[in-house]
Amino acid sequence: MTRTSVRSAVRVAVVAVLSIAMLVPMYIMVVNAFKPQQEILLSPLGLDLATATTEHLAAAWQNTSFPVVEGYAVTLFLVLACNVVAIGTSVPAAYAIARTPGPMFRFLLFFFVAGMFVPAQIILVPAIFVLKATGLMGTLPGLVLFMASTMIPFTLFIFSGYIRMLPRSLDEAASIDGAGRQRILWTIVFPLMRPIVATAFILNALSAWNDFVSPQLILGPGSEFKTITTGVYAAVSTYTTNYEIVFPTLLLAVVPILLIFVVMQRHIMGGLSAGAVKG
Amino acid sequence: MARTTTSRRGFVSSLANGLMTIPAAAVYAGLTVVPVGFAVYYSFTRYNGIPSQPPTWVGFENYARVIQDPIGDLRPAVVVTTLIAVVGAFLVNGAALALALLLRRTTPFNTFARVVMFYPHVLSALIVGFLWQAILGPQGAVNNLLESRGTSSLPFLADPDWALATLIVVIVWAQFGVQLVLYLAGLQAVSPELQEAARLDGAGSVQVFRHVTWPALAPTVTVTIVTSVLSLLKVYDVVLGLTNGGPGDATQTWAYEILAVSFANNKVGLACAQAVLLVLVAGILSFTIIALRRRAEEGAEAVG
């Protein structure tokens, strides 16, 4: 064997071992979701097909503190609604900021970008008082607006950077043809922004999907609306050593997002690096 | 021609453009900027959050309390958060950079490995916490395995020092995939000709890395350090799932202190003072890192 082939064999072996280490927690979660408590405690890694049961998975599915289907519906709604608000408002604002010269608009960009350094969950406590004062506390619109407001700084920042790279001559040609500002934006500029809109959508979707603190505090623990994360918390937090509840519940909570990730991995990971390069 | 058009209609045009920023500004100002203002205001008051008892102005009392820390509430949390941010940032970036160098070439095997390294990031941090708690808890999978082999169990989550170390490792496990993707993107931008030229000049792979790849990665390193430190400073969900702050207050982070201790006990003024300080620390730290990295990045331009 040559030196390079030895090195690449070592490299493959190291990566393979690390990959397996990364996957062990998922393996433990999957096999134990089909076992009774006693067996989980006795042999956490094995799966005896003779005693495997879907009983606990069914129980988790029917658990009233985490209504799985509704949880997914609410979470999916949040992902879409937050993105509509964040992207819908950021596109015109970013366009205006990118296309207007002068210190006013540079300051405006700075004003928005400063929000990227404010952690959402830290500002949640005072935001609750704003939501209370406007009657939006405990409502889905209130939650959507809060989450969207935390997404706007980054979304607007990458949008304005992207629009700046689009040739101005496009806008000017359309404007000479008599198209109005809004028409130029939505029929000419916006379609060209597809890659960056996809990036923003993916990153915002991930953060909305995984957000726990905002729905937990804004909707309240007793809310009729449960997201996946608040549902899991309600179902698991008081029974963390009852593994018949923990593993099946977690399995139900992660399988769909993992499937989406595997199918979309190229776009999700690509979107992340695109966002960082622009950001 | 374009310039005369803009200057003639300059003011009207700016005004119309200004109007286009209003929807975004309204949502952002209403639910991020105004709350920051409220946080600053409440941080100077004693307030329990009950509408019938309005906040009373107490000046710097909350800040004095944070600094003197009579019952030791925030100080341990600051220590825990600092450890998580410093140790975590080193581990996250070290692991991510090492793997990025290993997985640099796009082969089917490497693509698979990248997906495997990244997947924990698509899981919510709360779920990651619960999962690892079921694996490393006193009754968890690992300890049951150890006991069945006759070895004594390990206090992953039961001993204060172990619990903090476990928390950091779990956070690194869940987060380094993001930085890995960023490093991979950064490596794409490193000029292959330059590396090849260095190699032809007789540089070994360590030298190529040190003198070509690493300097050219400087802008990426800035982004990965800032993003990892920012996200490590606000760690909360994973703590809730993994240890719920325990044992004692061994794993209570700054964000945990704000949300699960001060705010949960209706000390809104104190919670806001702690939040304002955290936002300040996050902002100052980010700008300091960016400023310190500027020199390294200028080097990158010279190399690139």
Structural notes for this entry:
- The complex is a heterodimer of chains A (279) and B (304).
- The longest helix of chain A has 36 residues, at 243-278.
- In chain A, helix 3 (55-62) crosses helix 13 (243-278) and helix 4 (68-99) packs across helix 10 (194-210).
- The radius of gyration of chain A is 24 Å and the shape is globular.
- Chain A has helices spanning 3-32, 37-42, 55-62, 68-99, 103-113, 120-133, 140-165, 168-176, 181-192, 194-210, 213-219, 228-236, 243-278.
- Chain A contains 13 helices and no strands.
- Chain B is 74% helix and 1% strand.
- Chain B has helices at residues 2-8, 10-20, 22-43, 61-68, 74-102, 108-118, 125-136, 141-148, 160-188, 192-200, 205-216, 218-233, 237-242, 254-263, 268-303, and strands at 45-46, 56-57.
- Chain B has a two-stranded antiparallel ribbon.
- Chain B is globular, with a radius of gyration of 25 Å.
- The chains are: A mainly alpha (279), B mainly alpha (304).
- At the A-B interface, helix 1, helix 2, helix 4, helix 5 and helix 6 of A face helix 1, helix 2, helix 3, helix 6 and helix 7 of B.
